[in-house]
Amino acid sequence: MLSVVSNINSSFNNLLSAYNNSTRLKEEVIPESENAYEITRQGYLQGRFAFIDLLDAQRTLFDTEAQYLLELADYYKSLIELENITGKTFIN
Q: What CA–CA distance (Å, rounded) separates 33 from 53?
């Protein structure tokens, strides 16, 4: 019984962590990366930034979006683990 409670607690903590991380990425980090990319793109078009700067901003944006997708995957994996352990469905 203790192991079941421990597994539930672990899955819930993983779920909560992935939720918080994905929310922060979606609401804060990705918009900041998009803004930085757009500023760099405009600056590149105006001759204020080098092409390498544009590529760096684009890579940062892509990396941030990839991290968001990984956090979402972790969230759903933890949710499935929690559903399997408890026998309950949390999302229809």
A: 13
Longest dimension (CA), the chain: 66
Q: What is the per-residue pLDDT across 28-52, written as a single tens digit (0 to 9) for each? A: 999 999 999 999 999 999 999 999 9
The total number of structural domains in the chain stands at 1
For 51, list phi and psi in degrees, rounded to 5: -60, -35
Residue 22 falls within a domain, yes or no?
Answer: no
Structural domain including 41 reads 30-86
Classify 22 as helix, strand or coil.
Answer: helix
Q: What is the model's pTM?
A: 0.88
